[in-house]
Amino acid sequence: MREIAIVGYQQSDCVSDAGAQNEVELIIPVVGRVFEQVGITNAQDVDFVCSGSCDYLQGAAFAFVLGVDALGAVPPIKESHVEMDAAWALYESILKIRMGHADSALVYGFGKSSPGELPIVLSQQLDPYYLATQWVDTVSLAAMQARLMLDKGLITERDMAEVVSRSRRNALNNPRAQLKGDISADDVLAEETYLSPLRKGDICPVSDGASAMIICTVEQAKAWGKPYAVISGIDHRIETHNMGMRDLTDSVSTRAAAERAGMGNGKVDVAELYAPFSHQEIILTRALGLGDDTSVNPSGGVLAGNLMMASGLSRIGEVFDRIVAGEAQRGIAHATSGPCLQHNLVTVLEAA
Amino acid sequence: MSQPEVLHQEFELGFTYTRSTGPVVGRFLTELKQRNIVGIKASDGRVVVPPMEYDPDTAEALSEFVDVGQEGEIVSFAWVKEPREAHPFDKPFAWAMIRLDGADVPMIHCVAAEREDQVSTGARVRARWADETKGFITDIRCFELV
Amino acid sequence: MSEENEMVTGIEAPIYLKYNFTAGAAAARFLAQVKKGVVTGQRCPKCKQVYIPPRGACAACGVPTKEEVVLADKATVQSFTIVSIPIPGNPIEPPFVVANLVPDGANISFIHLMSECDNADVHIGQRVQAVWKPQEEWDYAMDNIKYFKPLDEPDVPVEKIGKLPVTGLEG
Lengths: 352, 146, 171
Description:
The structure holds three protein chains of three kinds.
Chain A: E1 4-11, H1 23-38, E2 48-52, H2 63-67, E3 79-82, H3 86-98, E4 104-112, H4 118-123, H5 138-151, H6 157-170, H7 185-190, E5 193-196, E6 198-199, E7 208-217, H8 218-224, E8 229-238, H9 252-261, E9 270-272, H10 278-287, E10 295-296, H11 311-324, E11 330-337, E12 343-351
Parallel strand pairs in A: 2-3, 2-4, 9-10, 9-11
Antiparallel strand pairs in A: 1-7, 1-8, 4-7, 5-6, 8-12, 11-12
Helix pairs in contact in A: 3-11, 6-10
Chain B: E1 8-15, E2 18-20, H1 22-33, E3 37-41, E4 47-48, E5 65-68, E6 71-80, E7 93-100, E8 107-112, E9 124-129, E10 140-145
Parallel strand pairs in B: 8-10
Antiparallel strand pairs in B: 3-4, 3-5, 6-7, 6-9, 7-8, 9-10
Chain C: E1 10-12, E2 15-22, H1 25-35, E3 39-43, E4 50-51, E5 57-58, E6 63-64, E7 67-71, E8 74-83, E9 96-103, E10 110-114, E11 127-132, E12 145-150
Antiparallel strand pairs in C: 3-4, 3-7, 5-6, 8-9, 8-11, 9-10, 11-12
């Protein structure tokens, strides 16, 4: 099988409102920077392009098509799109390269969630007969999941607050984070609940922005002469949409994806987990069996800024950054989609 | 070049969907219209409410309907202090996972209560019917504490 | 079966979502100029093509477009269609002409209406000019231009459509 490398990754700042920036204006700076990082000009210099976004976030039909204006698509390029987080666009791109249909690919994700009411927009991805019709928002679903864990004694509110505190402190070193600060678990617990049992700190912010990545065969990475990390495994698994039939206190799909991606074949120095709610980071850490020798969410994770449709790709990018910086030899990145960690993707990255 | 002002425009996007319900969802909604709640037996015998067409574990088509109670217990809940415009109440309420008597799998619906401390895991609740039922999930107006 | 016992076979499940749309930086600049009665495009720094309405990027080159270019409110018909069905909620009565128009100084067309013309005479290469609403009604909107009407100028040869300078065919 062809070995695949990541050679470039860029992300915009996570901002609560990108204001007068349309989708092209959000994408073009990160795509431009990632081309520069690899030393190429535009999408003509890669074999394949795949993006992840969701038009419902900003309420603009076919916004993802307008996004192509950022690429330099004349003459026509090979281009695809997933109505999912761009981590799944990466998955499609990897398949394309493994099948021998391409040697390199640009992957990007973008989201402008600020124009809409995100938890309500996301309610419409639920069961269209029983749940979407009730307008059950996604924050409330996560709150019920957290309470299940609290009631069973699997976590305490302090455990959740510790996750928030570590996220805010780690984000101090992340110039692109939206929420950061030297706050303790006590500071978090001092806050009243917002959507009980969740406090505002337990919930990721709504962010606008984009991220972009370039992957290629190892041969191409060597030809470009840029530092790279190898994607040694990737897999994704989904659970039933019926939340009552899932064990919401565990993430069996994450564990299954990690096993298939080969996470257990070596030490995990760093893990970036897409946990939009504090308790979900604990679920994921446990499902993956991560111990004290793994640095979890050194970027602050998505509690510090959540670019819907790009955050999953960004998790992979954050691990890539640490590997090429020599801070880690091997790491895993997790991406999620759907309510209460329904659908999970795990990528294993290793130093070249 | 000066920074442009932010031009914005509020608008509402409408998708006026009608959905076919099929024999399983249709049966459940028909029963709701008659103020009755039915579940369906999954492959392993668990009673699922609202009923699903296919078993998520075995993919087997399901067809054995079972009447379940209009009362049940709260398995988990979220207390909504600040209801959103789309929500079923304009004052604080709870979303809850409710296991109805005779069912094994909890369903998600709303619970009316005055205060958060009235709601708890394990609390008993009962369906309150809408004034007019029409074959829709909100024929159950909400659940109320027993 | 009585009506209340009849099986439910479908539901009405309309979805209404509220948004606060923002125009984007390039579109906001464009509309701010239209509010002043000026039509502008943006020039690609690489291929030099001028885009209207600008979206902040050259779709061909994939680079940001920053240079703002003032265009004429005279244009050339690149293509058109005669519409014989009404637009829901629009007072324009059919049949009316919808045209792809390239303003002088730009390289791509935008869509607008044509009027004060004999529909049967509308043709590719025809010269037209904007008919603006009264100035006191100008807003951040493309319908500050009510429509385009024919100009008494020679037709533009097909190979020159989209390549005229801002001064027009004679310039």
